[in-house]
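Running this now, will post back.
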Amino acid sequence: MPLSSLSLQLYSVRHALDEDIPGTIARVAGIGFRQVESSYKIHSKGRELRDAIRDNGLTSPTMTASLVDVDVDPVFPIAVDLGAHTVIETFVPDQFWGSVDAVQHIADQLNAAAAKAADFGLRVAYHNHWWELEHRYDGKTALEALVDRLDPAVLLEVDAYWVAVGGQDPVDLVGRLSDRVHFLHLKDGPVNHDNSQQRPAGQGDLPIEAIIAAAPQLEVGVIEFDDYAGDVFDAVAQSFAYLDAQVPA
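Update: finished.
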């Protein structure tokens, strides 16, 4: 399946955003992006990011936000104002995955958030790191144990790089969960915990095209760098050139 659309996770350029939100978004648009994945954390501080996204002709179909053990009520009106269709929980730390009961609690929180989101015409998804793949319960990864407990309406944004770091084959895992995988984080590198060694898509060890092909429900592919040893804008541009070629005109 081809990549239907491509975003940049703005966490990749967070340091530039700290200095200049409008200039950073203009630079992202100048690379060729037509959409971004932005965060509630920045939007909650004011309208500057939302205005910069609109002023540069961009959209933000997905917005990230904490949805577990927090008050979610302020999140969804901002997502609607932004024009997002899905709010993604991106970080439930390792220490909260220590038992089946803990996994159930996370599922309950996401299910409750999804019910509230639906009132706003929004969906909820979950984004993994490596620890959800390292924890195992009843022969399954904690991520798959979570999916077993989620309402069918809750989707996944699979970070294929962290799946590999967590010791799983990302093509196989995305294939097993393909009905839920509507979003993918697409980064590359030598598959280790040294984020500074992450590489532009197509220049590392991940089979990017096979991962995309394993997700027939895929709506958005998202470029992300947790860190980068060089000029992150150059790395983002290289990833965009590689992946945008797979998006039909």
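The first strand starts at residue 6 and ends at 9. More later if anyone needs it.
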